[in-house]
């Protein structure tokens, strides 16, 4: 404002600025509320009940608050893992989050890599430092740890074993990366 503006004009301009800021805040609150409703609806569909959806939304919100990921990213990852038959609350989402954070990748990439591996498609694991080779009815995962090549063998038809092995590798290599 010009130096000679009257106190009335100065107050009016300040008031407009405050109103605009308040309006922006109200808009963000409304937008966040709508986003929560959308997530709640998606989770109700995936979980099969309103009660389970509320519990999952609480878990997702808590997880997002403790990680570098936004609520939408975490909710999307949670829903994808559930859709793939993987329980995100069993440590799968934490392991994927740590791996993604350590490698500078989006959370979705780690979730997709894990989901693909459970169906025998291991190409995406390379982005997280893990190579895989199918040998008969086994998959051999190899990675480098402290300058040494490490290996783990799993039954190619045992999804639970594949999941726990990959989570174990990610937890050992990348555990705590989201906190850092």
Task: Describe the structure concisely for a colleague.
The protein has 180 residues and is mostly helical. The chain has helices at residues 7-47, 50-65, 71-83, 92-103, 107-118, 159-174, and strands at 131-135, 138-145, 148-155.
Description of the molecule:
There is one protein chain. By secondary structure, the chain is mainly alpha-helical. It has six helices and three strands; from the N terminus they run H-H-H-H-H-E-E-E-H. Strands 1-2-3 form a three-stranded antiparallel sheet, with helices on one face. Helix 1 crosses helix 2. The protein is globular and about 55 Å long. The two termini are 45 Å apart. The mean pLDDT is 87.
Derived from helix and strand composition plus strand pairing, the structural class reads: mainly alpha
Biggest sheet details: 3 strands, antiparallel
Lateral strand order in the biggest sheet: 1-2-3
C-alpha end-to-end distance: 45 Å
What pattern of helices and strands is seen along the backbone?
Answer: HHHHHEEEH
State the main characteristics.
180 residues; 12% strand; 6 helices; 61% helix
Architecture blueprint of SSEs:
Elements: H1 7-47, H2 50-65, H3 71-83, H4 92-103, H5 107-118, E1 131-135, E2 138-145, E3 148-155, H6 159-174
Antiparallel strand pairs: 1-2, 2-3
């Amino acid at each position: 404002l010009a130096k000679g503006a009257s106190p009335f004009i100065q107050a009016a301009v300040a008031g407009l600025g405050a109103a605009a800021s308040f309006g922006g805040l109200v808009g963000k609150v409304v937008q966040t509320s709508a986003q929560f409703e959308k997530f709640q609806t998606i989770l109700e569909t995936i979980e099969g009940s309103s009660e389970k959806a509320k519990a999952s939304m609480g878990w997702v919100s808590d997880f997002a608050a403790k990680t570098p990921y936004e609520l939408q990213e975490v909710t999307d990852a949670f829903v994808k893992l559930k859709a793939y038959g993987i329980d995100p609350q069993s440590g799968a989402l934490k392991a994927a989050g740590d791996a993604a954070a350590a490698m500078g990748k989006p959370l979705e990439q780690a979730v997709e890599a894990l989901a693909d591996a459970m169906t025998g498609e291991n190409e995406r694991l390379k982005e997280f430092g893990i190579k895989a080779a199918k040998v008969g009815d086994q998959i051999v995962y190899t990675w480098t740890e402290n300058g040494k090549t490490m290996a783990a063998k799993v039954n190619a038809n045992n999804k639970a074993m594949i999941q726990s092995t990959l989570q174990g590798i990610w937890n050992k290599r990348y555990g705590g990366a989201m906190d850092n």
